[in-house]
Amino acid sequence: MSQITLTVDQVERAVEAGTTGTDLFGDRRDVVVVRVDGELRDLAAPLPDGAAVESVTIDSPDGLAVLRHSAAHVLAQAVQEVNPSARLGIGPPITDGFYYDFDVETPFTPEDLKALEKVMQRIVKEGQSFRRWDVTEEEARTVLAAEPYKLELIGLKGTADTEGASVEVGLGGLSIYQNVRRDGTVVWQDLCRGPHLPTTRLIANGFQLTRSAAAYWRGSEKNPQLQRVYGTAWPTKDELRAHLERLAEAERRDHRRLGAELDLFSFPDEIGSGLAVFHPKGGIIRREMEEYSRQRHIDAGYDFVNTPHITKSRLYELSGHLDWYADGMYPPMHLDAEVDDDGTVRRQGQDYYLKPMNCPMHILIYRSRGRSYRELPLRLFEFGTVYRYEKSGVVHGLTRARGFTQDDAHIFASREQMKSEIAAALEFVLALLKDYGLDDFYLELSTKNPEKFVGSDELWEEATETLRQVAVESGLALVDDPGGAAFYGPKISVQAKDAIGRTWQMSTVQLDLNLPELFDLEYQAADGTRKRPVMIHRALFGSIERFFAVLLEHYAGAFPAWLAPVQVLAVPVAEPFNAYVEDVVAQLRAQGVRAESDLSDDRFGKKIRTASTQKIPFVLIAGGEDAEAGAVSFRYRDGRQENGVPVAEAVERILAAIRDRVQV
RNA sequence: GCCGCCUUAGCUCAGUCGGUAGAGCGUCUCACUCGUAAUGAGAAGGUCAUCAGUUCGAUUCUGAUAGGCGGCUCCA
User: Fold this and answer.
1) Is the CB of A345 under 7 A from strand B?
2) pLDDT at position A275
3) Which of A492, A525, A554 is the last residue of a domain?
4) Which nucleotide in the DNA or RNA is closest to residue A214, CA to C1'?
5) Are residues A648 and A604 in the same domain?
6) Closest nt to A577 (CA→C1')?
7) Is the shortest CB-to-strand distance from A89 to strand B under 7 Å?
8) What is the pLDDT of residue A167?
9) Closest alpha carbon to C1' of B37, residue
10) Which of A113, A249, A318, A339 has the most CB atoms in a 10 Å sphere around its CB?
11) Is the same domain home to A614 and A628?
């Protein structure tokens, strides 16, 4: 027996040739695969001489992916057991779970999913093992002759176009994974690069099928749709339960639900899909958001402009929007045409479009007269409402609407000012986001797509480097998004994490090398020559409606006092104290606080409950003890209370919380 | 836009195997009500999304339309 040398979890060891991961880690149930010289491998694979071997546990990111991928295989086996005519698409692990695509005659129903879960449970309990079989292309084609989609993937192997199929075919050889019963019979098999769990038993009870939906084959809407089944899988039941609880929490925070519960906004059918109306309470939140933003923009040297909601087509022909984005725009209104009775056109009409973007309008303001270098940088800001004809299937509450208001600014600057303006814009944006209560960020830098760009390499290089420098100086994590830029310039976007860890793309700062060119923008430089300005697009909220939704979900409706529609609710312990309570409210109102009193004939406990469900930041309670002492009692949203606070101090405390924009 | 599901009172939902409907919350009225998440009684409130079709009869079955939900594709 020859010996080989392995480095096992950083320790060098001599072992017999043919040693496998199972031999090394068989006594550790949490080790599900091994990483051999950086590549994940099955535990059953013999380890090569000199290899560096690391254990990969089921709760590590790689281990979880393997668990979920194996769960996807079990799902596919279950589907084909129930319905042998189902053809297989792909089945990769995804965040928190997995999916598998099937070509089936009829889509899955919720009952189907329940039944499939039962079959999966049985397969899991059988303790089938995953056996790798390295095959030639010929063998693979023979084994998978009945699986047209798999054959297509085999044909794609090694080409650049394996997107979405990387779990089935890698760049190396082909392999098939067989599910083997304990008695050695092969129950099911699938084209797959692996690796997999040693046994289905590890899928234990920590999995669940969650939903089914259609998905285009290989992600293209030109391809047929397959039926996709989604599931989630975890190492333990407890983790599964925690995951389901996170989903439930996200649902409780859903801005569409909170919007109705707290009477903030609605989407009347009569107006149309994706078009919101803000109710008085939503209006207050929105006004506070806007007013604070407006003040900060004034302080930062922005000029305020206003532009119309519709325009003749000429503007968007010039800007190129009609070339690039006509599909996403509302169709035009054709106006002013005059036709004689005999059908001859007496006067040519005009097409008017609802505006999908503010920038061309702002450009026209810049271009309304000659500009001097002395005016630069010129920062034009507008809460500009735009309309985009989003496809019917994508409209989603306030986060994807058809009409929304951008806090949009365009900075016209000289090449020399470009760097400092981009830096200032990013700093401005980050500081402001923090004031709204988001403080966990990372940045994403979208760089040039070599296939699709305008402008000189030099300018791109300079702009990209500037964005990068500013990003690095901010001290935030920076993620590269190579090729992710729009054709007209690189972009930095701020990704914010909310209270339950979800990431939202927020602000963007984007350099535009294209529009100044198309509109032939100029300014007169100090030396008398005419020069072209650069243009920086930046939005903080992106869309006020969307930002509203993000804040609503982030705070779960419990806004900090400065944003809360009702900041204080005063509740008398009983009717005799109505007047006392009203007096306190009057004092607060005199200071500009949005204070109300609950003098309804509900009982005291009910009033507390009502205030609670309305998520009012300060509930002030007054009864005999308080009235005698000239005091009130605070009740906060978490149930905390503080009794006998002198009225003057209470007022001051509330004013301070509002002024300082703190959460209470 | 594509696939699937859904649409019954202001909200959340029962229900009718085809004979025009119910609950809880909310609203209104009355009574009750002195310490931190639901006092009691009563009342009002519905062309069962819309439009066609089948039927003696449609909220229920069929189809179309609109809106919603979950995905896919898209997101300047």
Assistant:
1) no
2) 93
3) A554
4) B3
5) yes
6) B34
7) no
8) 67
9) A609
10) A113
11) yes
Q: Which two tokens stand for residue A5?
A: 């040398």
pLDDT band at A458 (very low <50, low <70, confident <90, very high): confident
Does A109 lie in the same domain as A21?
A: no
How far are the Cα atoms of A465, A571, A591, A595 from residue A598, in angstroms, in the given order? 58, 5, 19, 10
Q: Which candidate, A189, A137, A191, A146, places its Cα nearest to that of A168?
A: A191
| Residues of A labelled as active-site residues | 359, 388, 406, 408, 410, 491, 537
User: Is it the case that residue A450 has pLDDT exceeding 60?
Assistant: yes
What CATH number has the domain bearing residue A83?
Answer: 3.30.980.10
Å from A601 (CA) to B30 (C1')?
Answer: 11
Q: Is the CB of A197 under 7 A from strand B?
A: no
pLDDT of A638 over the 70 cut? yes
User: Which structural domain range is residue A416 located in?
Assistant: 302-309+355-554
* Cα–Cα distance measured from residue A150 to residue A87, given in angstroms and rounded to the nearest whole number: 9
Confidence label for A162 from pLDDT (cuts 50, 70 and 90)? very low
Verify that A38 and A67 share a domain, yes or no.
Answer: no
Q: Please enumerate in sequence order all residues whose Cβ is within 8 A of that of A348, keeping only pairs 6 or more positions apart, or say none.
A: A337
- Domain assignment present for residue A145? The answer is yes
Residue A213, CA: closest nucleotide via C1'? B71
> Residue A11: which CATH number?
3.10.20.30
Looking at residue A171, its pLDDT comes to 61
Name the protein residue, with chain letter, whose CA is nearest the C1' of B26. A261
Whether residue A133 lies inside any domain: the answer is yes
Distance A242 CA to B20 C1' (A): 47
Structure tokens at A378: 């010129």
Taking only the tens place, the pLDDT of each residue in A352-407 is 999 999 999 999 999 999 999 999 999 999 999 999 999 989 999 999 999 999 99
Q: Residues 391-410 of chain A: which lie with beta carbon within 7 Å of strand B? A: 391-397, 400
DSSP labels, A178-216: EEE-TTS-EEEEEE------SBGGGGTT-EEEEEEEEEE
> Whole-number Å distance, CA A229 to C1' B71?
10
Cβ of A607 less than 7 A from strand B? no
**Is residue A211's beta carbon less than 7 angstroms from any atom in nucleic acid strand B?**
yes
Distance CA A532, CA A523 (A): 6
DSSP A289-343: HHHHHHHHHHHTTPEE----SEEEHHHHHHHSHHHHHGGGSPPPEEES-EE-TTS
Domain count, chain A: 4
Assess whether A113 (CB) lies less than 7 A from strand B.
no
Does residue A1 surpass a pLDDT of 70?
Answer: no
Asked if the model's pLDDT at residue A163 lies above 50, the reply is no
The ipTM assigned to this model is 0.94
Asked whether strand B has any atom less than 7 Å from the CB of A266, the reply is no
pLDDT tens-digit map of A282-307: 999 999 999 999 999 999 999 999 99
Q: Is there a domain that residue A578 lies in?
A: yes
pLDDT on residue A368: 97
Q: Residue A211 CA to nucleotide B6 C1', Å?
A: 15
Q: How far is the CA of A624 from the C1' of B43 (A)?
A: 36
Question: Residue A145 pLDDT more than 50?
Answer: yes
Q: Are A90 and A168 in contact (CB under 8 A)?
A: yes
Q: What CATH number did the domain enclosing A610 receive?
A: 3.40.50.800
Between CA A210 and CA A208 the distance in angstroms is 6
Percentage of chain A with pLDDT > 90? 78
A643 touches strand B (CB under 7 A): yes
Convert the pLDDT of each residue in A91-109 to its tens digit.
999 999 999 999 998 889 8
Same domain? For A583 and A518 the reply is no
Whether A488 contacts A323, CB under 8 Å: no
Asked if strand B contacts A279 at the CB level, meaning under 7 A, the answer is no
- Within 8 A by CB and 6+ apart from A613, the residues are A261
